[in-house]
Amino acid sequence: MAVKQTAGRDQLGAFAPKFAQLNDDVLFGEVWSREDKLSLRDRSLVTVVALLSQGLVDSSFRFHLESAKKNGITRTEIAEIITHAAFYAGWPKAWAAFRMAKEVWADEEAEQPHGGVFGLGAPNDAYAQYFIGKSYLKPLGGENGVSAANVTFEPGCRNNWHIHHAGKGGGQILLCTAGRGWYQAWGQPAQALSAGDAVVIPPEVKHWHGAAADSWFSHVALEVPGEDARSEWCEPVTDEEYARLG
């Protein structure tokens, strides 16, 4: 299908009508549209490198960077393309190209890996029956009876209502490390959580915690030593209860 382009006529139609017609109808309408010979993505790659090699990092270069992004070239790929071309086209030209490419791909800045500073860990399959959504667990070891694990929830994931029982001592401490989530004790309003927050959960308090609907969430769960400590898993947090949190 022909690539529709009107920039030539829009900008030069009155001043240079033939040039405008060749730009819109031939260059884009015929050459760029030969997708059975070379994909739009690959044509974007060739065009970006050709312009970069000439040092033409002007508005037309930005247009072709934006087209390259639209045609499927990712932030990681454009960085590698410009890096590779720098050795053949020239280092200063690559610097100029990078300044513009960073602006075009600004909304795709590399995300920190899910799981925060401790990493994602493995799927939390052993406790999956007590969670709505998918969670991940990375044990962090423990000494002197204190155990710790980094728990990561995908967006919308939460655990069931549960209680940490203990004859003496016990309970849990949550140290939030990444993303946004929720904690709620039975009969109390839900508490929004984000990185840097800490929650002390006494024993015998029925509660739940998990991610916000639109965010991954990680926290370190510290088990407070206690005698006869055990966890009782209760009913799930319903979709209606969860939706009311906003």
UniProtKB/TrEMBL annotation:
It comes from the Bacteria. One of its GO terms (molecular function) is peroxiredoxin activity. Residues 17-103 form the Carboxymuconolactone decarboxylase-like domain. It holds the Pfam family CMD. Residues 151-214 form the Cupin type-2 domain. SUPFAM superfamilies: AhpD-like (SSF69118), RmlC-like cupins (SSF51182). InterPro entries: AhpD-like, CMD-like, Cupin_2, HNL-like_cupin, RmlC-like_jellyroll, RmlC_Cupin_sf. This is Carboxymuconolactone decarboxylase family protein.
